[in-house]
Structures
1.
Amino acid sequence: MVDESEMTSSPPVPIFDGHNDVLLRLFRRSGGDPVQAFLDGEEAGQLDFVKAGKGGFAGGLFAIFVPPVRRKNEAQSNLTATDAPAVEIAEAQRVTFAMAALLLRIERASQGRVRICRDAAAIEHCFADKTLAAVLHIEGAEAIDENFDVLNVLHAAGLRSLGPVWSRPNAFGYGVPFRCPASPDIGPGLTDLGKALVAECNRLRILIDLSHLNEKGFWDVAALSSAPLVATHSNAHAISPHSRNLTDKQLAAIRDSGGMVGVNYAASFLRPDGKQDKDTPADLIIQHIQYLLEHLGEDGVGLGSDFDGATIPAELGSAAGLQILVQGMRERQFGNELIEKICFRNWLRVLKRTWEPA
Ligand code: ZN
């Protein structure tokens, strides 16, 4: 048995990641202490502190996501993301605060090994100290009230990134349902309150994530936002014609804004047939990276795993396997400078530009 670290001749390239759902996994976990389970590592799941260390996962956006509430007498099999019912604000706030508290508790219990980062300098310090850098993100703004009181409180608690919608309608807009093959141009865009949310996020310098917006919502944000356009975990529609992926026209708008896309490892957003199949080659991730490089340029592509939120290629498996992507990029003759841009430099630059514009 050869140790993974012995297989690669050079030290692991640190990776900053655009999206994970580990807080959801820990929130739903039954038995034991989820905080300690994250720090000690466990068999289950795709991301924890130990797997992060093995794979060079140096930090990323940690999502708070309020799962759909199952209605009485409704079989789970009937409840697809496409027609997921709206979530009440009180329930959304309960879950949102619980998941935010989980990350705050992880930071405290970690004794300096995990840090919630509120600015770009904090992430750079984490990279230097080998501290895991966590940025608090909300995927779907169901917990946010119309006066933005909760948004301001969450911002003070560390929130630095927000997707107005997940793949369901809410007070702010209409998420893109999961369909393949399908255009992302499904349904109306942002509501008036959604447009006000964009302005408030710009004012607070909170990153606005485009990943779950449908195409009309995407163009609404593009027209209104003063920040670089960012899709934290989405892929190329030209390769995988899934409604969650980005068309060439959307990619051009992201490039022109100085923004970026984090490549998603979910098999259903990688594959041309949109199948949720773990028997999917990890090389498809590199193919999406190459396509996105052609359309966004070297400064516009990063990684956005969707760890603990999706079925990913078994070959990659978990955060512990991340360096196989670095190997894949090397095999395709990507230079060290480009690999570093994709693995972390582009994220650091775009977050800094969003949070601390000149
Ligand atoms: Zn997502």
2.
Amino acid sequence: MKFFIDTANIEQIREANSWGVLDGVTTNPSLAAREEGSYKKILEEIADIVDGSISAEVIAQDYDGMMKEAHELIEISDRIAVKIPLTKVGLKAIKSLSDEGVDVNTTLIFSPMQALLAAKAGASFVSPFVGRLDDISSMGMKVVQDIRTIFDNYGFDTEIIVASIRHPMHVYEAAMIGADIATIPFNVLEKLFNHPLTDIGIERFLSDWRRANKQF
Ligand code: E4P
């Protein structure tokens, strides 16, 4: 499973990238709004740091505007995947951009049928938002499971990015289902390292070593 980081914060991206397991980055307008500088400048910096797919979202909600912004975004790097929400207009743009060979990450997916529409239009990625579904007492991971089944039934190669991840169990469940990618906030990525027995184990090894006054 690929790990993307879900942030536009350069320090977090730099730090996560240094761990050696980062495959890409996803951003959105809310994440970019928290950072200094223009969206394009932020994306340029991200492209310099991470050697992988970088999702950048259009702001326009009309077809011409989406196409114009998409073309500006892919000028920044050939690794940009254009994020487009699953609306009727969005689907038209997804189809046109996919026909041009542009990677599209269909965002704000909340049902298997929305994912099927995006895959049929040729999207490279679909992003089901599991946390936001869980927030309204729906089963986010059931949507991911259903999308996996549908894509496997028909051999779609559209990759599933599990998005809106809130905690390590979301990453675990995504991996068990066989989702292609999890896009993970920095604080959740950090939590993946944690196990109290690891900390206790290190402490015990070191205290035994010190007590014996051993040479390395
Ligand atoms: C995905 O690409 C989105 O950026 C993100 O996962 C949204 O998550 P949120 O529900 O925490 O805003």
